[in-house]
Structures are given as structure tokens and as C-alpha cells.
Write a structure and sequence with these properties.
Elements: E1 4-5, E2 9-14, H1 22-26, H2 30-40, E3 44-49, E4 54-57, H3 59-65, H4 69-72, H5 77-80, H6 87-93, E5 97-106, E6 110-122, E7 128-137, H7 141-149, H8 165-179, E8 184-187, H9 194-203, E9 212-216, H10 222-230, H11 248-251, E10 256-260, H12 267-279, E11 281-283, E12 290-292, E13 296-301, H13 305-310, H14 316-322, E14 325-327, H15 339-354, E15 360-361, H16 363-369, H17 377-391, E16 396-397, H18 404-417, H19 422-443, H20 448-455, H21 459-468
Parallel strand pairs: 2-6, 8-13, 8-14, 9-10, 10-13, 15-16
Antiparallel strand pairs: 1-2, 3-4, 3-7, 5-6, 6-7, 11-12
This protein binds adenosine-5'-triphosphate and magnesium ion.
């Protein structure tokens, strides 16, 4: 039986009650069991006598306090650490506590935050024999807050729409990637869904409950990339926060870091990143301590990295490190059969977003979409659908709701494809355009500025077209 005096002093333990026979049970002696117990728990354990001398310090405790385990025994605790040991107060006032949050200032390590318990050891006559101090560090406030605020995956595989074989290939490979812990490279044109794929891989992986941290390498000035990724120690550069800062790699510990636009990473950062990928450890700027993280890396780019390598702009060794699995979401023009599916998905999404009824989509719109090249891929399609929903008064997506640049591009395309039918096609599209302008003028009661804005053209173009169509 463990001799807790539960009613009066929860955190007092009476060593005089020698009824704890667990060591005898194993035939090992209590000393052995006690030592095994101290070393088996994940908290630091420090046992002090009534004078504050170290009777025992477990390995974990030695690591947390940065002390040599064996050399600490018999020493005065106040001499060992460079802060005022709060545990001495317990010896002074005899008051133990359980799971209390405590801040300590260490000149060498800055502000430390611990969760601590102190159990007072007494003899029969209530004299203090010593204290057992158990403690574990709590993450610094910024890291904790960031972790709480750190985004979870916004998309899963069920949000990614597409059925064409080239697309399913990319999906299948991503599912395989989700099951492994290998680095992944996602290479695809702008708007093909690279970010969605990265989210889905994280979300379907064993790391789903960990953080997902996304870094856009293109949006960071080169001078800030290093501190953003790896953090800095206090006072390492002017303007640095006093208490230092953890970088994205540390924030993504236990989860996934997405290095978006990796093709934009400056050469010196590529070298540092390569080292991190090789041994999963790094040092903060201005720091000496090696930080080891368990972070999975997904890199994404809309550049062709093989090209970048041949132009000497991207390191080949880094490319091979990242490219353990390469997922390539195909451009929209290579999966035209997915257009109807995507259009109805995006129309529903847009309608929900704008609080509209889900629109019907005219067949000729779907046909026209097949003739357009979609340089902005699904994102562009999404924008076009959104716009059509906004301008539509009839709850239909019609040719008249499409932006001018798309109508013009389709017209050119059709002319190129079929010069003989040029005249008829051009006439057709002119009809569409004339109707769109007439309709818009009616709806805006002839306000040229608003009408031009709604049609996505300049006022001058609108005037010209009105003359052309005699409106
Ligand atoms: N297969 C898809 N199914 C549904 N929506 C998609 C799909 N692909 C892309 N989208 C939509 O298109 C938009 C762009 O996707 P995303 O941001 O993932 O593209 P990206 O490849 O990262 O683009 P960029 O290179 O410009 O960063 C998102 O709003 C997303 O909702
Ligand atoms: Mg992206």
C-alpha cells in the first residue's frame, strides 16, 4: 500500500510507514524498484534532503535541467542551477503542491515554464525529511498559441473533384503518399489544386492530428526565409523578439510542413534545407543548440524543377531529396471531360457562398469551355463560374455571363480550328456578345461605368462595341 495521507496532506508522504513491500514481492529490494520507477516516468524527478542537497535526479530531469546526473548527487541544488530553485521554498514552508504552473528565469536559457509537483517527505513526528520534485517543461506561450491556431487541413480527398484517368493517377499517387512518411513533391501549373492535394495528403496521413504548416517561399523576402523556417534565438538580430521565436519547422513538429513555391527558394536556403532534410535537425539563427524535429515535408511548385536545375537555379541534390514521390495534378486542358463535373461542383459552391439558388448551366457554355485553354486551370474556372453567378439575374449560367476575354479567346480558337466556318462562328459569337451587352445595359439602366464593370471590359471598349452593334 502506498502511504498517502489523503485527507490532510495530499502531497505529504510518510516514509516511516514501512508497509510498502513491492520490492520484496519481486525479491529485488525496494531500492531497485524505486530507481526503475524514477527512470520510467517522462517527467524530471529531483529528490532533495531537508538541507536542499540532491539525493537523486533521474535522467530525464538531468536533461531538462541541463545537468550531469551522477555529478549532481550530494550537491546543493542552489549551486547546480543558475536560477533560484523554487523547490527550496517548499523545504522552508513545508507546503507541497500538485501540478502547479511555475515560471523560472534562467540567465542562460531565458524564461522557462514548468508544470511541477512537490511532495514533502516527513517522519512520524512530522519533521521534514526531504522533498520529491517532479517537473516537465511547458512549451513557450508563442509556440503553444501557434500550435492551437495552427491550421488543420481544410481539404480532404473527398473535396477534390475529377474522374479523368490522368487525374485519378495523381489522386492515387497522393493516397499512396498519405500512407507513407516520404517527402512529396507536387508539381503542377497554377490553379491545378496543388494546395488541395497537400492538405488531403496530410489529412489522410498518420499525422492528421498534428499541425499542418504552410510556408509560401515566394511571398517571403529572401532575408526573412531563414528565420521564418528555422526561428531565431533571443537578440540574434536587430528587431528580433526578446525571447526568440520558433520557426515553421519547429511549429510543424509532429505534423507536416508544406513548402509552397519551392522553386523560388534562394540558393543559400536550398543548401540549408538540404541539410535539414538529411538529418531532420538544425539550429535557430544565432543559436547553438541543435533542434531535432519530426516533420514531414511536402514541397509544391508551378515551375518545372528539372528545367530550373538545367538553368542552374535549383539544386539537383535537393530535388532528389524532395522528389521521393512526385504528384502531378494535370492542367485542366488535359482533362476536358472533367469540366461538367467541375462546373456543377463549383456552381454549387459559388451559389452557397453567395446565398443564391444553385444555377442551371447552359449546354453551350459547357461546349464553349472545351474550346478554351484555361491557363489558370481550376482556379480560373472557379472565378468564371462565380462571376457568372453574380451577374446572372435568371439563375442560369449562360454565354452572356462569361467574361469577354474568354468569348474572344474561344472565337479565335474556333477560327483557327475551322477557317471555313469562320463567318458563321464569328456571327454566332457576335450575337452572344450583342445580347450580353444589350442585357447588361438594360439591367444597369444605361450606366456605362457599371455596365462596363459588370461585363469585365473598359468603358472605351463598351462604347466601341455599342457603336459596332448599333446599340
Ligand atoms: N480538383 C479540384 N476539385 C475542386 N476544386 C478544385 C480542384 N482543383 C482546384 N480546385 C479549386 O481551385 C482553387 C485553386 O486550387 P489550389 O490553391 O489548390 O491550386 P494551386 O495549384 O495551389 O495554385 P497556385 O499554383 O496558384 O498556388 C481552389 O480554390 C480550389 O478550391
Ligand atoms: Mg498553391
Amino acid at each position: 500500500m502506498i502511504p498517502w495521507k489523503e485527507t490532510t496532506h495530499l502531497v505529504d508522504i510518510d516514509l516511516d510507514e514501512r508497509d510498502w513491500e513491492i520490492g520484496d514481492f519481486f525479491g529485488l529490494g525496494s531500492q531497485y524498484i524505486l530507481r526503475a520507477l524514477f527512470e520510467s516516468i517522462s517527467d524530471g524527478v529531483l529528490v532533495l534532503d531537508a538541507q536542499g542537497k540532491v539525493v537523486h535526479l533521474n535522467k530525464r530531469g538531468a536533461v531538462i535541467l541541463g545537468l550531469d546526473q551522477a555529478a549532481s548527487i550530494g550537491r546543493d541544488v542552489a549551486e547546480l542551477v543558475d536560477f533560484k530553485p523554487v523547490i527550496l521554498e517548499v523545504l522552508a514552508n513545508g507546503q507541497g503542491y500538485l501540478e502547479r504552473e511555475i515560471y523560472i528565469h534562467s540567465p542562460s536559457r531565458g524564461r522557462l515554464r514548468f508544470l511541477k509537483s512537490a511532495i514533502v517527505l516527513r517522519d512520524r513526528r512530522s519533521r521534514i525529511l526531504g522533498v520529491i520534485d517532479t517537473f516537465r517543461p511547458i512549451e513557450p506561450q508563442d509556440k503553444l498559441a501557434l500550435r492551437m491556431a495552427s491550421p488543420k487541413a481544410r481539404y480532404s480527398f473527398s473535396d477534390i473533384v475529377g474522374k479523368e484517368p490522368v487525374f485519378l493517377e495523381a489522386i492515387n499517387l497522393s493516397r499512396i503518399a498519405a500512407e507513407s512518411d516520404a517527402n512529396v513533391l507536387i508539381e503542377g501549373e497554377s490553379g491545378t489544386g496543388k494546395e488541395m492535394f497537400a492538405h488531403a495528403i496530410h489529412q489522410a496521413s498518420a499525422r492528421a492530428s498534428g499541425p499542418l504548416v504552410i510556408v509560401n517561399c515566394a511571398s517571403l523576402p529572401p532575408s526573412l526565409i531563414e528565420s521564418e523556417l528555422f526561428g531565431y534565438e533571443s537578440g540574434s538580430f536587430t528587431g528580433a523578439r526578446k525571447e526568440g521565436f520558433s520557426g515553421k519547422f519547429e511549429q510543424a513538429d509532429g505534423g507536416t510542413i508544406v513548402l509552397d513555391e519551392i522553386g523560388e527558394m534562394p540558393p543559400d536556403m536550398q543548401a540549408k534545407l538540404l541539410r535539414v532534410l538529411q538529418d531532420k535537425s538544425f539550429t535557430r539563427i544565432g543559436g547553438t543548440k541543435t533542434i531535432t524535429v519530426n516533420t514531414r515535408v511536402i514541397a509544391a511548385t508551378n515551375k518545372n524543377l528539372a528545367d530550373e536545375i538545367s538553368k542552374g537555379r535549383f539544386r539537383e541534390d535537393l530535388y532528389y531529396r524532395l522528389n521521393v514521390l512526385c504528384v502531378r495534378p494535370p492542367p485542366l486542358r488535359e482533362r476536358l471531360d472533367d469540366i461538367p463535373l467541375l462546373v456543377s461542383h463549383l456552381a454549387m459552391k459559388g451559389a452557397l457562398h453567395y446565398g443564391r439558388a444553385i444555377p442551371e448551366v447552359d449546354g453551350e457554355v459547357l461546349t464553349a469551355f472545351r474550346e478554351y485553354s484555361w491557363p489558370g486551370n481550376v482556379r480560373e474556372l472557379e472565378n468564371v463560374i462565380e462571376r457568372a453567378i453574380i451577374v446572372s439575374e435568371t439563375n442560369r449560367i449562360t454565354m452572356a455571363g462569361l467574361p469577354n476575354y474568354i468569348l474572344t479567346s474561344i472565337q479565335h480558337r474556333l477560327v483557327e480550328k475551322n477557317p471555313k466556318e469562320t463567318e458563321a462562328t464569328v456571327l454566332d459569337l457576335e450575337d452572344v456578345e450583342r445580347n450580353a451587352i444589350r442585357q447588361a445595359l438594360k439591367e444597369t439602366e444605361g450606366n456605362i461605368s457599371i455596365c462596363a464593370k459588370r461585363l469585365g471590359i473598359s468603358r472605351n471598349t463598351l462604347y466601341r462595341k455599342m457603336r459596332q452593334y448599333s446599340l
